Amino acid sequence: MQKIGILGGGQLGMMFIQNALSYPVEIHVLDPSPEASCAPIAHRFVVGDFNDYDTVMRFAQEVDIVGIEIEHVNLQAMKDLKAMGKKVIPDPDVLEIIQDKGLQKEFYLQHNIPTAPMKNEDDFPVVQKLHKGGYDGKGVKILTEKNRLEKFDEASVFEELADIALELAVIVARNEQGETAIYPVVEQVFNPTYNLLDYLLTPARIDEETAKRAQEIALKVVNAFQSPGIFAVELFLNKDGEIWVNETAPRVHNSGHSTIEAAYCSQFDMMLRVLMNYPLGSTQLKCKSAMLNIIGAENQWGEAEPGGLDALLGVPGAAIHWYAKKITQPGRKMGHATFVGDNFEWIISQIEQVRDALKSIEKKV
Amino acid sequence: MQKIGILGGGQLGMMFIQNALSYPVEIHVLDPSPEASCAPIAHRFVVGDFNDYDTVMRFAQEVDIVGIEIEHVNLQAMKDLKAMGKKVIPDPDVLEIIQDKGLQKEFYLQHNIPTAPMKNEDDFPVVQKLHKGGYDGKGVKILTEKNRLEKFDEASVFEELADIALELAVIVARNEQGETAIYPVVEQVFNPTYNLLDYLLTPARIDEETAKRAQEIALKVVNAFQSPGIFAVELFLNKDGEIWVNETAPRVHNSGHSTIEAAYCSQFDMMLRVLMNYPLGSTQLKCKSAMLNIIGAENQWGEAEPGGLDALLGVPGAAIHWYAKKITQPGRKMGHATFVGDNFEWIISQIEQVRDALKSIEKKV
Prior knowledge:
The structure is a homodimer. By secondary structure, the first copy, chain A, is an alpha+beta fold.
């Protein structure tokens, strides 16, 4: 049986395994936390640091294929494994570019991929992105005259602030033969009061021409990388109609979660197909969908349980994905909920009914 | 965290766990085989006989809720657990009826549920069904003048041979409050050459009135049982238009597998909702679907792998569920494939293309 090794054992790995169990494959996982979401279900779970060269090399010895569910892994190990003839997906050269926002920006510019132009760091307003270590919105700051003293000290990219109409994302799969499969465009809906991500809708409520353009840009990014893998390309649709690539994740992504319920082939199934070099799946949708993250509530730090679960499960077509993280922390992603249906009006009305209750809370004793 | 204990650790339990991992629950499994499909993924897997009173009692001590994925479990243990206040689903009284085809037949007759009339055992042709131990088509025989000497010796029901137009199945869920959810009717398509089950289609290609009647009969069966659980009611649609109940399984069932891909709430998710007393899910379909069992090929007895997997995965919307059974045996259910789409003509044309290759074979070394 083929053995797939995944670097990272969080929720992405967990959802990957839930699906991969339907195939004749064995899944090995490396994660520093013995309480990682993948720990109870991986065929082999190794506690160790995926940023440590020796740990990754040792872990990979026992598998046939190395994949990732987080991009911040030891790059040299990935390169050496590839050089030794191990199948490593995505290509380590792509990881190197994506791990560094400076290289990533250069890459887009070199390949004529539309992206926010670079800018002088004192030409406010300006967006500062740390070259290294940014993750999940961290390491990014909008600098103005007013807050300019908050500038990060570390090496950074400075770019123009996009005048955003909508934030979009497109997931693209590419296999070893260079064949690709493109998912429908995802729309990120922000809460106007708090300017926080509220929920995701698939397919995005944009006209066909714009959707096609977004997909073409995402495809251009992935083809430029020339690497097999699953890629989530995050895009800004600007108010003037232009589309800019914000950044790319070389892995399954939060914005693709509703493909589990709504697409013929989920992003997790697609990842397995890419790793195993099975035929790519169909990205066609069965229905419309929304995805809502379940976040740790304020001031709650204990053993976690989902608040509002009964309300959620009372919604026809709603599903929960609870990530099996032991401890709830304010703002921590603890799970997500998917809503499916034929029209967004109804789907959004259902979200409204459960959104306030649906959060991760401390377990009542 | 609530602990669910499942008696039986085969593919039904495995698919149950794959979904249950998305919830804040812990799954314990009891099965005699250390190589059972559930073994690598249950939170706790106990090797032991679910037909043994003491083994079941000991296993159940550590869980809050006891469920089944096979109906042939120790009945006295289930009764005593219920008497001790443990939540046991389905009700042991229902298990008692279903474990005995004689009691099951009486039950249908008592509750005015249409079923094949009982018949004198020498009034050929006649269908003989063993009271006990029948499973998956075993323990049932059609007796004629010609083969009458092949009659089983054990206690049996003798009933009229149905003049079958179609074999149908309806899955019904019932919760502790007596609320029910009914899935669309499933049609079993037989291979005309071999008269073997070929594939299942959902929804059945029957008129609305017949579908409604089938669902009403299935609901009547389940309401008569007055027990929470998931029930698969197998039906004959006779050539004269009458519908007869053949038998009922008090658990998730082969005929419900395509709900994973095609229904808002799969039968496995529904089972979890019933066990946890969460709101029942929606049985609405997202698309049409077909399900094909993957069977052990003739003369192959070694370590198993699926033949034809690449062809299957090349079909848009096709999915595999490989049951992680180590050894392939002729006729053994080793997995299944689901096909989804908008119309059956296309779906069936896709099945035709992969059917011959899609079987469990010995791994090539």
